[in-house]
Amino acid sequence: MLILRKTIQELEDWNGDFSGGSNTTSSLQSTIDSLTSRNRQLENDLQRLQLQQRNNQLALERLDEYEETISQLQDELDQERSNKKQSQTDKDEDVNHLVFTEERKRVEELSHNLEAVRRESEEKSLQIENERDALRNFKHDQLKEQENLRKMHDLQLAELNEQIQSLENNKIDLINQLDELRQQLQSRETQIRSFQSSTATPGSPPMMSSSTHHRQSEDDRQQLTSIYEQLLTLLLGEYSLSDNVALSSVERFTNLFEHDDEGEQELEEILDFHQRAPSRQSLASVTPGEKQQLIAQNELLSTLLTEKEQELIFLQQTEKTREEFMENLRLNLHKSETEKEMKQTELNDIRNVLDEKLRENSLLKKEKMYFIEKLSEFERERQEIIHIAPKQASPAPLTIQGISQ
User: Fold this and answer.
1) If you placed Cys at 309, which of 14, 200, 234, 275 could pair as Cys (CB 3.0 to 4.6 Å)?
2) Range(s) of the domain holding residue 302
3) Is residue 120 in some structural domain?
4) Is residue 60 a part of any domain in this protein?
5) Domain annotation covers residue 296
6) Is 237 within 8 Å of 212 (Cβ atoms)?
7) According to the UniProt entry, which residue ranges have a biased composition of type Basic and acidic residues (predicted)?
8) Total number of domains constituting the chain
């Protein structure tokens, strides 16, 4: 259009120039012809331009339609993307929420288990400390008891040794007294024999009648029987009187001390003295005073034998008591060692359980840290999805230049 107007303006100018000048008619005619052809060309150009303008107008209308359609499609695409993103976001949020809830429950359960393990570990530690204190107290008490038992045992051993030494001394004294008594009896025997030799001269009348001699013999037999019964009673009834009732006095004493090794030598000396003693006929000539003295000496000998037997019984009882005490002490020591081993075994078991609980506690802590890291990672991914979704929901619009390109 601008070109056409410019051409018309030039024609008008040329027409003015042509009306103003009349000298060059031929040139004007040529110019007119030229202008006519030029005008026809311009008209053709104008028609062509108008056609192009209409085509451009149609193209613009089509572009407007295309742009509107593209805008609608873009809006639909954006809406579809937004819906899809929102659906995916909701789905991811639901999944993340479900996973987060499950992980939270698991972490809470692990925390609860960890707290329970910690409390149990503290209880086990406290129990171990109590067991250690009890074990230390038990060891201290056992050592103290063992020390007291050792002291008491040493003291009792010392007392027993003193008693044994005292009894040995008493035994030696008794043996000496028995030796003195034997010497006295031998002296009395010598006196009786010398008295018999002095009184038993040929043709001398007997000093006692037969009835008196028989009575004294009966008294001697009863005295020997009484001594035998006393000794039999002292020897704890090992032999009975009915077993030896048909035996003589010498045989009874021999059978009575047949199994007594310690008193065998003394018994032989006593029996030897009895065999060397005067016969019944000689005893019949002994004065009543000497006879009473012999009876008293026999009673003293019986008393000494009784005391000696009692001392031997006491020594046996003391030895038995000492052996029982030693056996009880060994049993107590063995029991203490057994209880100590049981306590040590129980302490080792408690230590093993505590170590196992500590290892489980460490594993639970590691697992808890792992789940906390996973939850943190899920939370970061969820935040990134939330921040990226608005940017993708508003894309940049397409321009006409971009579409035409």
Assistant:
1) 234
2) 178-191+219-336
3) no
4) no
5) yes
6) no
7) 79-93
8) 1
